[in-house]
Amino acid sequence: MNPDNSRRWAFILLLLTPALWSVNYLVARLAPGEIGPHMLALCRWALAGSVLGVFAFSELKAKRHLILKNAWHYLVLGALGMWVCGAWVYIGARSTSATNIALIYSLSPVFIVLCASAWLHEKLRSVQWLGIALAFAGLVHVVIKGQWGNLLNVRFAVGDLWIVACAFSWAGYALLMKKWPTDFSPLARLVLTAAGGCVILLPLSVIEAYSGLPLSQTHWGWKSAALIVASGLLPGALAYWAYGAAQKSLGASRTAMALYMGPLWGAMLGWAVLGERVYLFHAVGAALILPGLYLASMAKEMPAKG
User: Fold this and answer.
1) Please, what is the average pLDDT of the chain?
2) pLDDT at 117 over 90
């Protein structure tokens, strides 16, 4: 493929990647009553890890003696990226919309910048602080549904708070991915991290199954299977492949722009598939969050997310 065609396909993948991630928000909204959140996260990453593992098999086999070297890294990363950013999203989606999830989750890079400043002592510029302030104002506007004049009487959606916790967890995941050295390629490392996440999720899924809680039970059938396949292949294996392919051709900085399109795709899919309405407070929140995200993350590389 000539360079022009390669870049054209990379831009197409760049547009599709946030759409693939947004499928997970739809799955999260459709899952309650069909499959438990921990069981869905476990099956999703078992499937995604298996598919990606086919492509990373040669490397994993050649470096199998190094897998146990930092095994605890994969458990920690798996807990942050596959448990919290997996099962907790599905729990939060019980009481918030796909649009809210996409908007709040888009703040992950802002949280990464803040955590890097506090933990790694990275100095932030004035324009980045301005971006952080705008983004947080947008977050609060979405969470309180624009009811600033009646702030004390606002009823918070518990689901929004679950998603805020997920966004913070993704920040920790991204920073540890940068801070901890690795002997593996990004693809092989993701497969090992998915395996670590499955180790964490397995006992939690068993506890969930025996809890007796109605929304935590799994009813095995074509609907639960479809949710697993959709979440494992689209926002899982395919999204990570597309992001990596686009990044290889366009570079990390340009590819990170895909994160800015997440709220748009989340709102569009929520409206088209679930019939969710987009309100004025969503538009105002996005008008604050997206420019804030751009300013806060200036000169920062942002990892993929899902």
Assistant:
1) 85
2) no
Decide if 44 is inside a domain: yes
CA dihedral 37, 41, 42, 46 (to 10 degrees): 160
Does some domain include residue 303?
A: no
**End-to-end alpha-carbon separation of the chain, Å?**
29
For residues 198 and 118, what is the distance between their CA atoms, to the nearest angstrom?
Answer: 30
How confident is the model over 185-202, as a mean pLDDT? 95
Distances (CA, A) of 252 to 25, 30, 255, 290: 25, 33, 5, 19
Contact 104, 160 (CB under 8 A): yes
Give the list of residues 6+ apart from residue 212 with CB closer than 8 angstroms, or none. none
**Local structure of 178: helix, strand or coil:** helix
H/E element, 202? helix 186-209
Residue among 269, 283, 303 nearest 146 (CA): 283
**Does a structural domain hold residue 306?**
no
Structural domain count, the chain: 1
Answer whether 122's CB lies under 8 Å from 175's CB: no
Q: DSSP label at 34?
A: T
At residue 299, the 3 state secondary structure works out as coil
CB 90 within 8 A of CB 44: no
In the chain, % of residues over pLDDT 90 = 41
Rounded to an integer, the average pLDDT of 28-34 is 93
Lowest mean pLDDT, pick from 33-37, 119-123, 274-278: 119-123
Which residue range is the domain that position 234 belongs to? 3-296
Burial class (CB in 10 A: 0-12, 13-18, 19+), 179: exposed
Domain contains 70: yes
Q: CA 273, CA 236: separation in Å to the nearest integer?
A: 20
pLDDT beyond 70 at 154: no
What pTM did the predictor assign?
Answer: 0.84
**Is the pLDDT score of 220 beyond 90?**
yes
Closest CA to 41 of 86, 80, 71: 86
Select the more confidently predicted residue: 7 or 58: 58
